[in-house]
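tmp note - Small ribosomal subunit protein uS17
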Amino acid sequence: MPKRILEGVVVSDKGDKTVVVKVERTLLHPLLRKTVRKSKNYHAHDEANALKVGDIARIIECAPKSKLKRWEIISPSSAS
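out:
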């Protein structure tokens, strides 16, 4: 099974080798047929501590690295 790849904005870089990435997605409300935005935060492993708050990050699934980290950074592209 292929690993999922998500893209989002870094909202926290306080942890050592860890960033929190907010991923937003849009969906259609089943009854109202209105577009709704949902977001979720993912803890991702950032080995080089390269990303800062506001950067765009692409993350990929990986084996658990800690209690919360199940994702790691693919490409740190700055767009602040």
